[in-house]
Each structure stands twice: as structure tokens, then as C-alpha cells.
Amino acid sequence: MSVFFAAARSVAASPVARVLARRAVPSAANDTHDADAGQQEVLHAALRHFAVHGLGAAQVAYAHAERARQIGDHPAGDRWAAICRTLDKRLGAELAKQYLARRT
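^ thats the sequence. predicted structure below, dont judge the formating
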């Protein structure tokens, strides 16, 4: 009967050590701990607006933004434009384009 020599393995490379080792938990994809507070406020406002108006919320926000800008309330118009852009990027871009066209 033959006896073969097998050198000892490194403890770090052992299969048992790999199974028992704690792995680093990756951060979640939707983790927004470093997001700007203003973005969080707009997101919450957009979600509340969506809860009230449903799928037509972007169009309602668009109308609010236009109305606010027509009466000269630019901060409210910017807020509604941000909500509209959060809900519908295409409609938000159209609103921004119209606003820039009126200013020039």
C-alpha cells in the first residue's frame, strides 16, 4: 500500500473557512442616504401628488406649473415643474423647453 504526502492547506483558503467567513453586505440599489434633501422633498411631494391624482398626476402638475408661472409665482412654478419632471421626464422636459422659450 502506497502512502502519498499532501501538504497542509492554508487556513484562509480552506473550504470550511470560506463558508464560515462573514461576507460584506453590499448596499441596496435604492439606498439614498447620500441624496440631496431637496431631491427627497420633491420625491415625497411627487409621491403624495401621485397618490391623489393617479396616472394623470404629471399632467396636473404640468398645469399647476404653467398656472403658477403665468401669475408670476416662479418658486411655485419651479416646484411644480420639479414634481412634473419626477413623474414624467418627457413632460418635464417639454415644460422646461416652453419656459425657456417664453423667457427669451
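The CA atoms of residues 66 and 77 lie 7 Å apart.
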